[in-house]
């Protein structure tokens, strides 16, 4: 250069030098609502290097370098119940790829549709803290913020109550018949004698 100036590309001296390691090949991000919480799944696919990296909730669970076959699948577990998840990598022409996530062998969409039939979810705010309560209808397990709760079941005149505590708060899930075959059983969360509206996930 005519000025003889050896100044760096960056204006401030704190900027890092250019690094290939800092580059990311992030191609897909999914959020999956399970009983123990909502999990974030991220997938990096280096189509020139053959790299495949899977992160669950920010933690690396799979890393493969120099894969010569750019299509295929990666299987791993998500959440406290070790739910099986698979990322499918398919070529869609030329150098374009499609990434789909399966949970327990079903497409994410199908899994979430089925899940909405087999669980109830409530989000509430108690003592300056947010809580996510999930009832698994098939097992009657109750989860709160990722932990399976100790519960006690009780038969009452119009159905059943499943009792548990969140901190110092008395909670129960009341199950009553809707009286209609298609609707089945209606579940309601009661905290400190106050009904909490259900959340749609």
Automatic annotation (TrEMBL):
Belongs to the FAIM1 family. Keywords: Apoptosis, Cytoplasm. InterPro entries: FAIM1, FAIM1_dom_sf. It comes from the Eukaryota. It is found in: Cytoplasm. Gene3D superfamilies: 2.40.128.180. It holds the Pfam family FAIM1. Coiled coil: none annotated. Plays a role as an inducible effector molecule that mediates Fas resistance produced by surface Ig engagement in B cells. One of its GO terms (cellular component) is cytoplasm. GO terms for biological process: apoptotic process; negative regulation of extrinsic apoptotic signaling pathway via death domain receptors. PANTHER family: FAS APOPTOTIC INHIBITORY MOLECULE 1, FAS APOPTOTIC INHIBITORY MOLECULE FAIM. This is Fas apoptotic inhibitory molecule 1.
């Amino acid at each position: 250069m005519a000025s003889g100036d050896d100044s760096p590309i960056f204006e401030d001296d704190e900027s890092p030098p250019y690094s290939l390691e800092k580059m990311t090949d992030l191609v897909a991000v999914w959020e999956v609502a399970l009983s123990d919480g909502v999990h974030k799944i991220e997938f990096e696919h280096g189509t020139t290097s053959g790299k495949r990296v899977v992160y669950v909730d920010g933690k690396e669970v799979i890393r493969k370098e120099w894969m010569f076959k750019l299509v295929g699948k990666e299987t791993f577990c998500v959440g406290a119940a070790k739910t099986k998840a698979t990322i499918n990598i398919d070529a869609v022409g030329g150098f374009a790829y499609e990434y789909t996530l399966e949970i327990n062998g079903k497409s994410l969409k199908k899994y979430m549709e089925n899940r909405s039939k087999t669980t109830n979810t409530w989000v509430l705010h108690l003592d300056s803290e947010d809580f996510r309560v999930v009832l698994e209808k098939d097992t009657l397990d109750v989860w709160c913020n990722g932990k399976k709760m100790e519960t006690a079941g009780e038969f009452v005149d119009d159905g059943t109550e499943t009792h548990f505590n969140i901190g110092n708060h008395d909670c129960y899930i009341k199950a009553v018949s809707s009286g209609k075959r298609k609707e089945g059983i209606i579940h309601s969360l009661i905290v400190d004698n106050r009904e909490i509206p259900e959340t749609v996930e």
